[in-house]
Amino acid sequence: MQSKAHWEQVYATKAETGVSWFQPHARRSVHLIGQTGAGRDARIIDVGGGASTLVDDLLEAGHADVTVLDLSETALAAARARLGERARRVTWLTGDITQVTLPARAYDVWHDRAVFHFLTAREEREAYVRAVLHAVRPGGHVIVATFAEDGPDKCSGLPVVRYSAHGLHAEFGAPFTLLQQEREAHRTPSGTVQQFIYCLCRKAPN
Ligand SMILES: C[S@@+](CC[C@H](N)C(=O)[O-])C[C@H]1O[C@@H](n2cnc3c(N)ncnc32)[C@H](O)[C@@H]1O
How far apart are CA 13 and CA 75, in angstroms? Predict the structure, then answer.
């Protein structure tokens, strides 16, 4: 895992619309969050959300309890500036997901696009899964998107682990049921295509 400094520098030197992971709308994430049956009062956390437009889409859809967590304050500041007044409706958390202590059983939906794949050390992945187990309510849903097996081996210049749906699910283990998997060919602002895999899992109800 690279330092916070890497991400602060990325967001300080690149426009939010110029980073390779930029999407004008997070359509697949919104679709999968919809698949969970989450209502407007569902507690949703976007982990490593950065300056993602997912929060805009969720607010637009009427979701009233959205948290965005990221290592980079600069990324969160960019998202807040874009949202203007609407940013007040969001809970913003700065921290490293492998170290932060989130409230217990607090979230109905955990969403992560392109963060888990940076965890190249087993201990980091274990810490991440512990955070999910702690913070997602029993019966809650977890959506994680990473580069697929045929995706790039680097993201933002950092090495990543690429996954199949079953390999990704295996990282989370028995308390989680794999409900759905979807592939996505993401076109970066420079026109490159990156293959993603999205997994929707449900945490056991007890
Ligand atoms: C490739 S970007 C994806 C951003 C966003 N999820 C999206 O899809 O647009 C990865 C993001 O994860 C954040 N990040 C990286 N490692 C993290 C960690 N250990 N804890 C929290 N955020 C992290 C970075 O600051 C960055 O915003």
Answer: 11
